[in-house]
Sequence to fold (99 residues):
Amino acid sequence: MSKTARTNGTTVAVPVSSAGVVVLAAANSSRKGLWISNPPTNTGRLYFNLSDTNPTATLSEYLNPGDSYEDTRETCYQGIVSGLYSIAGPQNIAVTEQS
Fold:
C-alpha cells in the first residue's frame, strides 16, 4: 500500500458510510491507474472490492485511516470498484483514476 497520492489523473471525494455499498470507481476500459485513500482524519475502516461483488468485512481488501491502495500495474483493474465503511458516516474517500 502506498502512502502518497498520484499527481496525475482525476481525483474525486466519494462519500461513504455503513449504510450501504457505494461505487468508488465505475468500470472504465481506459483506466491506466487507480489510487484509493482513506484519509488520516477519517475514523473508520474502508472495505473495498476490485470485482463485481459487494464488499464485506471478511471477504474484502481494507484500508485503515491514513492508508491508501494503488494499482498501476500494466494490466490495471478496469472493472467496478465498490466500497463499504465500517462506521456510520459520512466520511469522504479520495479516489484518483488515471486514464
The chain has one domain: 10-98. The beta strands are 10-16, 22-25, 33-37, 46-49, 61-63, 68-71, 81-85, 91-98. DSSP finds no helices and eight strands in the chain. The domain at 10-98 is CATH 2.60.120.770 (Jelly Rolls).
